[in-house]
Amino acid sequence: MKVASNLPPVIAIDGPTASGKGTVAMRVAAQLGFHYLDSGALYRLVALASDKEGISVEDPSALGHLATGMQIIFRDGEVLLAGKDVTELIREEKIGTRASQLAVYPEVRDALLVLQRSFREQPGLVADGRDMASRIFTDAVLKVYLTASAQARTERRYKQLIAKGISARMDVLLQDLQERDARDTNRGTAPLQRVEGAYLLDTSDLSVDQAVTQVLNWYAKLHH
Ligand code: DC
Q1: Which of 115, 149, 194, 199 is at 20 to 30 A from 133, Cα to Cα?
Q2: Number of Cβ atoms within 10 Å of the Cβ of 155
C-alpha cells in the first residue's frame, strides 16, 4: 500500500515509564513547531474517570465505552476532562498504575485509536507512548525507542515526587516501575517494544538537552 505523502510527518517516541520521553518529546515538538501527543495521558484519563465512576479495572467493555465518550481538551500544557482541570490528578502514581492495568484491554486501546490519530495535523506531530511506532503511527518518518536503566528512571521519578512535596521511597518506586515495565511489555495487545528501524536512545547518562539534540539531529538527517 502506498502511503499518501501529504499526511503530516510524525515523530514517534516510545519507551518505558519514567524514561523522560514526555519531556524530550515535548521539547522536540516545541523546537520544530509541531503538535504534541502525550498518549499516556489518554490512558491516565480513562483511569481517572473510571475510578471516579466506580468502574472496575477488570471490566473491559465498560472501560472501552467510557473511553469512547470522554470529553478531553489539551490546552497550553493543561488537561481538561469534562471541563475540569485534571492536569495534576492524572500524574499521580496510583493513576499511572491503573492506566497500565486497563491499557491491556483491546476494548480500551481501540476506543482511543481514532482520537490519537486525530492529533496528526500540519506541520507535524511528535507522539510519545508505548505503541506509537508499532500501531498508531506505523508510517512515522522517525521512530525512537527512548529508555534508561531502571535505576536512573527510579531516581528521576523519586526526584520529581520529592520536588512536588510528595514523600516517596526508592525501593517501593523501583518495584512499582519494574511491575509496570513487565505489564506494558508482556501484554498481548500492542506491547511496548522497539520496532525495526527505531533508533535506540538510552538517556541513563544524558541530559534532557543532549537527548533532544540527538532526536533533532536524526530528524534533520532525514532531509539530506
Ligand atoms: O506514559 P505514561 O506512563 O503516562 O502511561 C501510563 C500507562 O498508560 C502506561 O503504563 C501504559 C499505558 N500506555 C499505553 O498502554 N500505551 C500508550 N501509547 C501510552 C500509555
Answers
A1: 149
A2: 17
Helix (H, G, I), strand (E, B) or coil at 199: strand
- At 215 the pLDDT is 98
- pLDDT recorded at residue 223: 83
| pLDDT tens readout for residues 69-114 | 999 999 988 999 999 999 999 998 899 999 999 999 999 999 999 9
Query: What is the Cβ-side half-sphere exposure of residue 54, based on CA atoms within 13 angstroms?
Result: 0
CA distances to 113, 125, 215, 218 from 210, rounded to whole Å, are 32, 21, 9, 12
The Å distance, Cα 210 to ligand 1 centre, comes to 24
Whether the predicted pLDDT of 183 surpasses 90: yes
pTM for this entry? 0.94
Segment 210-215 shows an average pLDDT of 98
Residue 3's pLDDT is what?
Answer: 53
Residue with CA nearest ligand 1 atom 3 = 17
CA-CA distance, 214 to 160, in Å (whole number)? 24
Please, what are the domains in the chain? 10-219 (3.40.50.300)
Mutate to test the pocket of ligand 1, among 17, 36, 43, 91 (most ligand atoms within 8 A of CB): 43
Q: How far is the CA of 224 from the centre of ligand 1 (A)?
A: 33
Candidate from 36, 100, 117, 189 with most ligand 1 atoms within 8 A of CB, to mutate: 100
Rounded Cα distance, 193 and 43, in Å:
18
Calpha distance 190→136 (Å, rounded): 9
